Amino acid sequence: MSAEQTPLSIEVTMPREDVALVIVKGFLDVDTATELHHHLANQLHHGRRHLLLDLSSVPFMDSSGINIILKAYKETRQVGGSVGVIDPAPAVQRILDLTGVSLTVPSYRNADEALDGTCDALSRP
Question: Quick one: signal sequence residues (predicted)?
């Protein structure tokens, strides 16, 4: 990791019993993606079916971060849950768009909108 990179910081809150809001700060890359994966797996293990990833403070994400998001998407769908991304930084949104992830994983402007999105996902057949 270069001296210019921001170390990864992850904070998890539970706005609802089945929802984990995961606030990620720093570079999400090959050196840090495993840490995020462990946090997400832990939330799923504890019954959180909906994972909301706040990526507003992630200035850079590589394919490792994309893989973690897609893996979380697959795992949450198996238990009737969902994954959403909150306010991704412009560079991260570009990666999500270029890779097609934004077609599968919805993006929201803020946590309230994302929570409303999880309620909508619950009401769909």
Answer: none
Please work out, in degrees rounded to the nearest 5, the angle formed at the alpha carbon of residue 112 by the alpha carbons of 106 and 117.
35
95 vs 12: CA distance, rounded Å: 24
Structure token digits, residue 73: 């998407």
Digitized pLDDT (tens) for each residue of the chain, 125 residues in all? 444 566 899 999 999 999 999 999 999 999 999 999 999 999 999 999 999 999 999 999 999 999 999 999 999 999 999 999 999 999 999 999 999 999 999 999 999 999 988 766 544 44
Distance of CA 53 to the CA centre of its chain: 3
Helices 90-99 + 63-78 axis angle, to 10: 70
Cβ proximity of 52 and 114 under 8 Å: yes
Which two structure tokens, joined as six digits, stand for 70? Answer: 């897609």
Question: pTM for the complete prediction?
Answer: 0.89
Coil, helix or strand at residue 84: strand
SS3 108: strand
